[in-house]
Amino acid sequence: MNAADRALPEDRREEFKEAFGRELAEHELENLKNHDKPLITVGDVVSLTVRRHGIAPELAIYDGMTERREMTDFARLVEDEGWEEVVVRNPAGMITGEMFEAVGNALTGGTRVIRVEGEEDLAMLPCILQAPDGANIIYGWPGKGMMLVTTDGTIRRRAEELYEMMEELE
């Protein structure tokens, strides 16, 4: 898969508004504690909630914002726990090559926290594309709460279709 910068074209935005997976109630997090596949969190509130349940995700992606407001609780937790983080540039409506590569590196044993300068709004796509089958990805969905998607061939094909719809930048 090509890790070039990609941008979401205005005329395709509607196709990206359908959620992957299902809603996840907070009490269901207990079921994910002893899962033997990677757990990935995308979003500040989701990452913080999962960690407060005693679960350390294989990879957490956050940008210090929630619904366009500053949110520093997860950033403080990362600092307090001494987690090393990688900082990547990723403007809104884009997946940068830097983001794509950071996710791949994290999933092969690299740094487990990615702090995004910009937005992590589309970071779930490189997670789905690169995580092994059976990985659980929890992400925030504005107005709904947490969503859970488990990677498999069907989900990956849908993510590939969306990724390929994005305009490759030079």
3D structure, described in words:
With 170 residues, this protein is α/β, with parallel strands linked by helices. It has 5 helices and 12 strands. It has one domain. The strands form 3 sheets. Strands 2-11-10-3-4-9-7 form a 7-stranded mixed beta sheet, with helices on both faces. The protein has a 3-stranded antiparallel beta sheet with strand order 8-1-12. A two-stranded antiparallel ribbon has the order 5-6. Helix 4 (124-130) packs across helix 5. 34% of the residues are buried. The model has no long low-confidence stretch (mean pLDDT 90).
How would you state the average pLDDT, rounded? 90
Number of domains: 1
The major pleated sheet works out as: 7 strands, mixed
User: What portion of residues is helical?
Assistant: 25-40%
In short:
The chain is α/β, with parallel strands linked by helices and 170 residues long.
Summary keywords:
170 residues, alpha/beta, 7-stranded mixed beta sheet, 12 strands, 26% strand
Strand and helix layout:
Layout: E1 6-7, E2 22-24, E3 39-42, H1 44-52, E4 59-62, E5 65-66, E6 69-70, H2 73-81, E7 85-90, E8 94-95, H3 97-107, E9 113-118, H4 124-130, E10 136-141, E11 145-150, H5 153-165, E12 167-168
Parallel strand pairs: 3-4, 3-10, 4-9, 7-9
Antiparallel strand pairs: 1-8, 1-12, 2-11, 5-6, 10-11
